[in-house]
Design brief:
OB fold (Dihydrolipoamide Acetyltransferase, E2P), binds adenosine-5'-triphosphate, 2 domains, Rossmann fold, binds magnesium ion, alpha+beta, 6-stranded mixed sheet, globular, nucleotide-binding
Length: 390
């Protein structure tokens, strides 16, 4: 057994390794301590981008700050580029300025009295680089973010999106190999956000740095991540490729946080090796059992509480009852044309169900429609109410 909180010595090409990390805060005035990082372990590989995703207050920034050395964790171990920078057991704490990382903040954090050039040059000057190298590296980094022409401006003379580009250039210029991002795009407008997101991915591919990227925006997470770590209350609920998390969430929490999901709690009415019948509030739903069970697939026994997840795009809509299983009559509540999809909301029994179809000639004014779902497109999860302690 691996000793808790100790890193494995045979770790391969991981650039960031976190093992058994815990950080507690005592609230002013007493009460139970807050535990924003709760026995967390994960790695970020070479040239990999891992996104920490979760709701406000779940502990994303605290975890990032522990890795940067801006917070001192209570337990566990952190290693960057193979060097242990924190170990509670061995009493190691390397200060932030001696950790081989760069950071990009939500608020840009540029020096207002320094030009764009000097801001980007700052980490190289701190490391004692010579003038020739500074000039070449800074102009290369500024060209990469399309700002070479603005090198002599001050931060107050350029836009917010341009300021964040400067912060990006400053983060990559010392070639630390590891860049931490804390919601870097949340202060810029939607269009600039998309451009910068693509630029970060492009720079990452070109320079090959490893990134740990905090956001609460699931679209941003899916677009930029090699792997997404979904955080809930200080713990990693699931970590995996965006496709894996989307199609095989391990819990109703993950399913509802990533993309939109219809979640139907119920009880197992019958099960065999190919099908599970779940009794939901609006009828019996047949769920196909995959040949290889994904991570979140719950123990199935008659009467066990479970949740069925249906992504809106797996639900078909028609005027006739589908001939196969899983056909339910519904009342149309709304229809919205969203370009790529037409989204319907239907009331089936008391359950409000969302369906997204490529096109449909069923009008919003029509009262009712049938929904149909192929059992193999449904996902069985543990019972969300039990998990939430209700
Ligand atoms: N210095 C501190 N002292 C006490 N509690 C703190 C401190 N810093 C953070 N917390 C608490 O820790 C929890 C996690 O905070 P954190 O900033 O890590 O959340 P977050 O996931 O980054 O949220 P957001 O998306 O809003 O930025 C919160 O409950 C917060 O109030
Ligand atoms: Mg935060």
């Amino acid at each position: 057994m691996e000793e808790k909180g100790k890193l494995m010595d045979n770790a391969t090409d991981a650039r960031i390794e976190v093992a058994g990390l815990t950080k507690r805060y005592l609230r002013r005035g007493g009460g139970k301590p807050v535990v924003p990082v709760n026995d967390t372990s994960f790695t970020v590989g070479s040239a990999e981008m891992v996104v920490l995703l979760g709701p406000s207050g779940c502990g994303k920034t605290t975890l990032l700050r522990c890795i940067a050395g801006l917070e001192r964790p209570d337990e566990g171990e952190i290693s960057i580029n193979g060097q242990v920078v924190f170990s509670s057991r061995r009493g190691i704490f390397v200060p932030p300025n001696r950790r081989p990382i760069s950071m990009v903040f939500q608020t840009y954090a540029l020096w207002p009295h320094m030009t764009v050039f000097d801001n980007v040059a700052y980490p190289l000057r701190c490391r004692g680089a010579d003038r020739g190298r500074i000039e070449a590296s800074v102009m290369e980094a500024l060209s990469m973010v399309g700002l070479a022409a603005l090198a002599r401006q001050y931060p107050g003379q350029i836009s917010g999106g341009q300021q964040q580009r400067v912060a990006l250039a400053r983060a990559v210029v010392p070639r630390t190999g590891v860049v931490l991002f804390d919601e870097p795009l949340s202060n810029v407008d939607a269009k600039v956000r998309e451009q910068l997101r693509a630029e970060i991915s492009r720079m990452q591919r070109a320079l090959g740095f490893s990134g740990l990227y905090v956001t609460h925006d699931q679209v941003e997470a899916m677009a930029i991540a090699d792997r997404v770590a979904l955080i809930d209350d200080g713990r990693i609920e699931q970590i995996g490729a965006p496709e894996e998390i989307y199609h095989h969430p391990v819990s109703p929490y993950v399913g509802s946080f990533i993309g939109s999901a219809n979640l139907w709690p119920g009880r197992v009415a019958a099960c065999d090796r190919e099908r599970v019948t779940v009794r939901t509030s609006f009828g019996d739903v047949q769920v196909g059992v995959p040949a290889v069970l994904p991570a979140g697939w719950p123990q199935v026994a008659p009467d066990a509480p479970v949740t069925v997840m249906a992504r809106p795009e797996v639900i078909a809509i028609g005027r006739e009852a589908p001939s196969a299983v899983n056909g339910f009559a519904g009342v149309i509540e709304s229809k919205a044309f969203l370009g790529a999809n037409v989204e319907f909301t239907l009331l089936v029994g008391k359950e409000r169900i969302r369906a997204a179809v490529p096109r449909s000639d069923i009008a919003a004014s029509e009262e009712s429609a049938w929904i149909g779902i192929d059992p193999k497109n449904l996902v069985l999860l543990s019972d969300g109410r039990a998990a939430a302690g209700q």
